[in-house]
Amino acid sequence: MPLNQEQVRDVLVRAEEIRQQRMFLPSEREIEDVLRAAEEAGLDREAVLQAMRERLSVLGEPPKTGERVFAKSSDGQYYVATVTEVKDAALRVRFGQGGEHLVSTAEIRPCSFLPGQRVVCPWPDWGWWTCKVLSYNAEHDTLRVSDGWGDEHVFQVAEVRMAIEREPLFAKTRMWVYTGAALISGGAIGSIITWLVTRGR
Fold first, then answer.
1. CA distance 70 to 110
2. Which residues does 3 contact at the CB level (< 8 Å), separation at least 6?
3. Residue 136 dihedral angles phi and psi, to the nearest 5°
4. 127-144, pLDDT tens digit by residue?
């Protein structure tokens, strides 16, 4: 069945996400070096592998029913959800706010709330804001976070969403430099043309 334009765009966007993710993944040798160092320090191999998966936002085995993940919602953002059913390459998840959704394994990410991790929170009187996790309260299923400006707030886990890594600042700066250069050169060329036209009068 041929893909329509929107499906082609989605495939290309996902392919780019995978490509960028692979760029930051450690090699097998690097993973083994970390595991060897961890074992020498007395750390459990499985715990280290789990920590690496969480830190690098890479899933190992597909999650099982009852596990919590970040799942892609219809708005394109990743929210906390619980896996309710596993079907081949698809998962049915229930979001913290109550809605259910069928997602592919490519549309889920590991869910953890480690101190220092970034999450996006609905900050009071401000809206969605990227915050840093200070602590997680398992009993109440809440996060204490900092807004980066000295204020702290507590949110229910169901309220937060995953922080998406943004394009590096230098890439954005480069874009603005190119845009500015194009505008300046366009203005200069326009001025020269105007001068030549008015000169002939």
1. 6
2. 11
3. -120, 130
4. 999 999 999 999 999 999
Amino acid occupying residue 84: T
Contacts 24+ apart (CB under 8 A), 66-75: 68/111, 69/93, 69/108, 69/109, 69/110, 69/111, 70/108, 70/109, 70/110, 70/111, 70/161, 70/162, 71/95, 71/101, 71/103, 71/107, 71/108, 71/109, 72/103, 72/107, 72/108, 73/99, 73/101, 74/101
Closest to 76 in 3D by CA, of 97, 103, 50, 49? 103
Give the global pTM: 0.56
Report the C-alpha gap between 47 and 43 in whole angstroms. 7
As a residue count, the chain comes to: 201
User: What number of H helices and E strands is found in the chain?
Assistant: 4, 10
